[in-house]
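name: query_chain
kind: protein
chains: 1
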Amino acid sequence: MTLAGSVVRQACTTSFSALSNQTLMNLAEIFKQGNKLAILYVKCANLEDAQQVFNEMPQRNSLSWTVIIGGVAKQGQWHETLRLFHQMRGLGLQPNNFIIPSVLKACANLMSLQEGKDIHDYIVRNKLEIDLFVASALVDMYAKCGSLDCARQVFNKMPHRDLVAWNSMISGYAHNGQDAEALEIFNEMQREGLKPDLITWNALIAGYSHTGKTAEAMKLFNQMQSAGMKPDTVSWTALIQGYTQSACSNKALELFCQMQQAGLKPNSVTVASVLPACANLVALGYSREIHCYMARNGFDSDVFAGSALVDTYGKCGCLGDAHRLFDKMHQRNTVSWNAIISAYTMHGHGEGALKLFYQMQHESIMPDHITFTSILSACSHAGLVDEGWQYFELMKQEHNISPTVEHCACMVDLLGRAGHLKEAYEFISKMQVEPDACVWGGLLGACKVHGNVKLGERAAQHLFVLEPENAANYVLLSNIFAEAGNWVEEGKVRKMMEKRGLKKRPGCSWVEVKNRVHTFKVGDKSHPQIEEIYSMLQSWAGEMKEAGYVPDSNFVLQDVDDDEKEHILCGHSERLAIAFGIISTCHGTPIRVIKNLRVCGDCHTYTKFISKLSRREIFVRDGVRFHHFRDGVCSCRDYW
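structure:
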């Protein structure tokens, strides 16, 4: 390799502030002109200034372009990398084998497969595929874009393969759920005498975690240690991500603690990965501890970690904290705006969510399909039917976003909640996408709320085809029959469930006390303080009735007498969790409960009374939204 080639390779792969004086002298010899050397010195401190110097250069050659494109790519400015690449070619200059890897990396990170293929054609025409760095970058680009056949073709033609190429293939197969192929490449690599490094192991672990195969990922994690390889932050983060995405939130938090006990410091990606687990458990104590850790380590300025924290506070019932944090963010992107809009939506503040949506556009942040899912959901929870239609049309006409099945499900939910069941059914019949279980489930739920037996049966029949093993659909239909007093049809549905071996999902609630999450099931007797809990419930009974509470036995859909129905209502999991929260915390402490199912109407009324009698704020997040009870009133205004 020539002196120029060697120096430029080092310049593109090393932090410029770390370059030796000898290297800078060599660069000076290469460039000869002061303005070309200036770009390198400026780049040491500020890429923006480096680009300005580059733009003002009267003459540029391939070395100038190599430095600026490599520097921009190193900063992760992928669109700018491609723009400079096309600008260079437009001037008639031919990118060399030092520039191409940076450009392919940009394609990989932007998932620009077609652009990557065009660059591959250029590589072949200019006979650059023999370069190890170019070939490895090609393999990585195709693998990250999901084009594994093309990646394998390039890989097979490589006369020499380095660890980068092997790791790219392993990572590509693993991330696309092709476990057997990933392991085969892993074994083939070792048969050829190459020892897996930490990146290899991490690629496998991340791949399995990404596809939800957490048990396999954990097995590899342990094998890596047995092979003498010490897990790093990337290894732990991959595991935490996997367990969080698989809804194993307790395990994710456990791993987060173990990682720190092992002497490793979580980075911003780790934090962004574990925060959703805190949100799932409404683990506010853990969330605040992580927030403090972020502030101490400067992660609170990271847009992704900050957005995850906004989302977590929102899901933990702390809407005020979420908004204050959002306002303090130095940088906000679409993810950040989606997090705060979703928080307002979940808390039932539809008007607040719409106001944020307008503010988002005023700041020139473009909404995406997730934004509109939240906006349509906000309209649904607030009963804003006309506004919902307007945003549905706005999404299509002004933002060119084709409605997904999620958007359609929101519209069905919006119409169904408002009692427009016929209109909801007509909407489903005209959908451009195939209705899924969420769409029909939204209609079935609305039929239960509004007592429409005939349409409920129709929706249920579709669900029995789409989700024959989902017991919740059978339970909903049986409840519709039960509320209508049609015990014969209710019995038929129950027998259908028994025949298929399906069981009703039990109600379950969680409450966090002193950084420990306590779980309660309906009719639970297992908690160590269960006697004290039921004693508290009994002590409230008299005061509740004096205050005007009358148990609504219609929410016990069993053919039993009224006394038994009242006893059943007393054992609902959210009541047990609330009672435990009150007896276990100081007076005035807010109680935050999460429930896996939709809160029943009687428990909703009951909790309003309890919030007034106990003088506590009570937050209940059910399977649909947040309910904020305070002084006998709920934030949902009894519309949920």
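note: Residues 530-547 form the longest helix (18 residues).
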